[in-house]
Design a protein that fits this description.
- The complex is a heterodimer of chains A (488) and B (345).
- Chain A has 488 residues and is of the alpha+beta class.
- Chain A is 60% helix and 12% strand.
- In chain A, the strands form two sheets. Chain A has a five-stranded mixed beta barrel with strand order 4-5-6-8-7. A two-stranded antiparallel sheet of chain A has the order 1-2.
- The longest helix of chain A has 24 residues, at 60-83.
- Chain A is globular, with a radius of gyration of 24 Å.
- Chain A starts with a strand and ends with a strand.
- Chain B is 6% helix and 50% strand.
- Chain B has helices at residues 3-9, 14-19, 255-261, and strands at 27-32, 35-40, 43-48, 51-57, 64-67, 71-76, 81-86, 92-96, 101-107, 110-115, 120-124, 130-134, 139-145, 148-153, 158-164, 167-174, 181-184, 188-193, 198-203, 208-214, 221-226, 235-240, 245-249, 286-290, 293-298, 303-307, 312-316, 324-327, 330-335, 340-343.
- In chain B, the strands form eight sheets. Chain B has a four-stranded antiparallel sheet, with no helix packed on it.
- The chains are: A alpha+beta (488), B mainly beta (345).
- Chains A and B meet through α3, α4, α5, α7 and β6 of A and α1 and α2 of B.
Amino acid sequence: MKRLILLALATLPLFGQTTRIASDFEIAQMQQQLAKSHDFLSQLSGHLNLGDVRAARGERALARREYAKAYETAATDRLDARKASNMTRYATATSYAALAQAKLGSAALAWELSEEAIRYESNSAKTWNLYASTMSLLGKAAKAASASRNAVAIAERELAASPDSGNRLDLAIYQSALASALIESGRDREAEPLLVQVTSSLRSPAFDSLRRDVVRRESFEIYSSARGEASSYISLLNRSQLRLAALYEARGDVAAARRQFENVLAARSDDATALTGLARLAQSGEHFAEAFDANPFSPALIRDYRRFLATHPGESAAGDSTSARVRRVLIAANQHELRAARAALDPLQREYPDNDTLRSLRNDLDGQTTGAPPFLKAGVTAATPSGDELRSLLRLFDEDHLSAAQRSVLDTLGLTSTASFDEAGAGGPGQQTIFESGIIEGVPFRFSEPIAFRGTFAAHAPLRLTYRLLGASNDALLLEPLELEAVR
Amino acid sequence: MTAHRRAVVTGAFVAGLQLLGLSARGQAIASTSRGVVVAHDGIVQLWNRGSVIWTSDGLPAPTRIVTSDERIAVIDPLENNVRVLSTATGRGQTMQTGETPIDAIFIGSALYLLERDARALERIGADGTRASVSTGADPAFLHMANGRLYVYSRAPGLVQEVTTSPFAERRRVHVAPFASDFAIDASHGYLVDPQAGTIATFDLASMKSSGTIDIGAVPVAMAFASTGTSLTARTIAVADPSAKKVWLVEGAQSVAQAFTRGFLRGLIGLGLFGGGASQFPTGVDRLFLRGSHWYAFDSSSGTLYRFTRSTSTVVATHATAEGIAVSADGVFVWNEAVRRLQQVD
């Protein structure tokens, strides 16, 4: 199986990850690629990357849809592999199914699948690395670090036995993942030498041939799920240098941090994270403008720019680019010219209706985040909302008055209510009931598509529904069902 | 697209997951002297003859339950918790553990807990006092024989023998690394190596490796099918999902003698059912053997089979590996769809 590496996005503690914004054209290209390439890794990495791109654009519902498709791809391959008695392929597909579930926020399931994979392949550095990525996504940094240590130990043995560039690259990948997990655990001191080792290794003559390949192919894309040696090499070097820069910046070594950011930009001049880092270090409006050109919707960049504006009240932004228009919203808001800020924001929101960052800016401007249910706060993972609370959520969705933080809570919040469904659809195979819409405490809801539930359930009867709240549409809440059962 | 297909496509839905034998939330069950204990949805319940005897607070993501005559330990490896309860009353307490507790054993009044990512075997006394013994990297299995504990660490292939008094490592042996299952009897330890397609054995008396035997294509799990007599050897059943078979290994001599002489090699490969045909429609990878009642489980599809030397029959579908308990009273499966314990055989 070809190399597919995963590069965790949320491992830059100082300033967060600021990936370059993907244009609609680039997303369309990715979708076209998915339509053309039907092999397992193309489909899997395609959906994972699309999900990450959607998430970076602040389009959470679309991101979840891609992650769900990635899970479906992995789950199907898992069963196919088992039927074909290919246990290695089964373990790999199971690992990816776990990863997709982690991206969807299903911790227990991600754990169960990860454990199943490792039963078969505890000798595989790749499987342990996937395990670590899954644990990292679940916020289990200590478990991720432990799994990464296993991956590194196995890869070191493999490199000693066969010192080729492929094994050297694999070891660098796993060391980088270990460094990420250590940073997440607050063990920066242990992570830094590992990252120095990784970047030194990647810049060494051992990778001359791969670098020539990168230049020859004009490869420059940075992926969260990278395929092939060239793609893995540039993505890994990019991420490792950014992480190292973050560590240097955190301990006040500005020169070393700047050097790493510049190294990143030497390979890719529009890297938004590096541009943001340089802008932050230089406190330069010009640098911030370049970073906004790379990704105008990055919450981390917006946060840094707001801090910059607080000490640079004379800033201005000229031009019609999205970058300049977003900056004008922020500049106006900083100068308390709220009407001008709203006037600048309105056309942007019309142009990017699914963008959560713009919604969040709107909420900040309106200052109308009140009225949210009390469970809509960080750390809450389950709740049983009242009818009034659901109506409040419906209104907040309709008026786009949920903050990014509140939307983030909704991503992982499991809600449970007594629901009554509209008439069931035609039954599927076996004992199944299909529902699409219904009502909870007088609040209408629907699913994005008809869902088949195992078991026989009556319409218009009280049923216990566990669900996630995705949004609102046509005066109804849009739900993702997690479980349906009889009322106990 | 069928309705079933839609449920699977949506990925995160329980309806779809159950069809794949997966649980959206942690759950575990185990048999006790007073009934079957179930941990699910943040609670622990003792069931007996279809009724709930008691209900107690539980843990968010339980994956394993271990029991003694008097006590129950529910383990949550994701949140690093263990909840120890009285089997009689359900009263108990929750304790924080080291990183990733995965297995435990009660000995006397103490609970011995294997913490994988802490790389430690921890003893929690009845009064809450704690002590620990360091293990190798990736400690994955814990067993007891002859009053001693045996910890197998996958990465180095290390088995450590630990005494309970004093609580300390006594001896160690390096066997096969990366085993998928570990079993032990009074005289030998057995490690299933799916990559090599072998079972590696070691002798408990000498704590020395006693050989390997080839078994099937990808052996994954094993269990003792019979204890043997003075005239017959112990019989070992080995699940091989790749071959969709359960292999049965037995010899006229004692297992130790047979392994030493390589005598069993000639018997390996015959398979439980003999011939080349697969006797399970899907590959089984876990075994639950109790006396003459033999069950095999396919983790990928969630199918539980009852099997004999010549037949296999489906007894449950949509089950999860930790949602199955085989007791003297029968086979119990937790049905997540209806939130009930069901006796399936």
